[in-house]
Specification:
The protein is of the alpha/beta class. It contains 9 helices and 8 strands.
Amino acid sequence: MNTELKNAIASTDKDAQYDASAKRLLGQKHILAHILVKTVPEFMGMNPKDIVPLIEGEPCISTVPVEPGLTNTVTENSGERLIGLNGENAEINEGLIRFDIIFYVRMPSKSGIKGELSQIIVNVEAQKSEPTEYDILNRAIFYVSRMISSQKGRDFENSNYNDIRRVYSIWVCMNMDKNSMSHIHLTKDDIIDTYHWKGNLDLLNIVMLGLTKELPEHDEMYELHRLLGALLSKELTINEKLTIIGDEYNIPVEENFRRDVNIMCNLSQGIREDGIAEGEARIILNMHKNGLTAEQIATYTGTSVDDVIAIIETDKKAVLV
């Protein structure tokens, strides 16, 4: 195994650990409450602390498969058939695509909408950047469609389609050119005359939220962007993150929360260092392949001769493995 491959594997492992920590932080109820305040109309204007008790149970993080037939789990209890989200054992369906975070939340009683169902289902997805191999909105549409179709047998039976829960799929995309937020949902266009077709156009909801690397000022418009930007930043120190999260947003910084923030900061530093080290090693090896001596390479790169020789020798041994 060559040096670059070893470094890539090590970096990938750190990336995976970083992603897992980021999802655990996003899955904290206080963070989810802030997201709901800015994305779901019934929660807008509420104090996030009042939303936390409305989030039912513990959010499922990277455990519920997206694939048809695997989103739900069936158990037998006292002769009754019980169906719930398949979030009990992540290893059973190893390698499958999973929802980053998915949970039920009760609607606030003040909504006052006649016939309003008591719950909605919310999915939060974190993306390092906008993907290039596919259009992200297409994936979001697939996810929100699965959130609807998987309810049959779990949230509604047979043809009781009026019992379908409203769903939100919220995508947090980092490293974007601008801070943005879009709500994508169903609409009705009358082509010939008008007719009131009964049903809920608000069942399907996608929210795309773009974050830039630089934190915006703390104002009402970019309040959520600043919170999530600070939470997921690879540049801020742990104290800078905790100051913004704790002081500006009055979010309780409990021990497990502080631990995950610390892990993320350490991993992001390691990822940066791995990238720098890998780049420097690649330059040294290229110079060596082009006939430069260890002394010449050391002069040009500002690296010691011993370190240059060690990199060259390590690469030779790796090639032989």
